[in-house]
Amino acid sequence: xxxxxxxxxxxxxxxxxxxxxxxxxxxxxxxxxxxxxxxxxxxxxxxxxxxxxxxxxxxxxxxxxxxxxxxxxxxxxxxxxxxxxxxxxxxxxxxxxxxxxxxxxxxxxxxxxxx
Amino acid sequence: xxxxxxxxxxxxxxxxxxxxxxxxxxxxxxxxxxxxxxxxxxxxxxxxxxxxxxxxxxxxxxxxxxxxxxxxxxxxxxxxxxxxxxxxxxxxxxxxxxxxxxxxxxxxxxxx
Lengths: 115, 112
Description:
The complex is a heterodimer. By secondary structure, chain A is an all-beta fold. Chain A is 0% helix and 57% strand. In chain A, the strands form two sheets. In chain A, strands 2, 4, 5, 6, 9, 10 and 11 form a seven-stranded mixed β-sheet that branches. In chain A, strands 1-3-8-7 form a four-stranded antiparallel β-sheet, with no helix packed on it. Chain A is globular, with a radius of gyration of 13 Å. The termini of chain A are far apart. Chains A and B meet through strand 5 and strand 10 of A and strand 5, strand 6 and strand 11 of B.
């Protein structure tokens, strides 16, 4: 089984709809992240969480919100989707402890299309 | 602020050619440096890393050396294969922020 899973893997929605992307991990990591990937722009950080009660904005948080329901779950919501939120979304995790504390482990991605 | 710049793609090579993908960074202090690879239809996976100056990271025939004097972490491979076709991301991690900062990615296509 994959260590970091994302659902759905693909989603097509319409402008103005609310949509939630979910991420679960079995790695036991405390830190979780949401990124979006656009061609030529690399990965940009949307939100991150260092613990269940900790939520932080990344560089492009406008139009998005998150919820850290448990250590293993971190969901990303688009309250009112717009076409320029069409992108590939990745969840990632890391462990704040240990010598590999700066490595992130990525899920397979969710391809979101907003029409 | 901290940033990463990598050479633009796409890069197209023939099998067994030598590969270099340039990466330079801007950061205060001593970040850790990474190369991640994204194969078609998949998420990113760590390819190699270096945590201090002059360290060389290596994996699957790829190498990169942390050069503080030139603030660079160029990725090299002596003989690429078709299976190396992917997008490669350079990234830095700074303890102060606790986040990875990515370059824009370089797409590599290797032809038989």
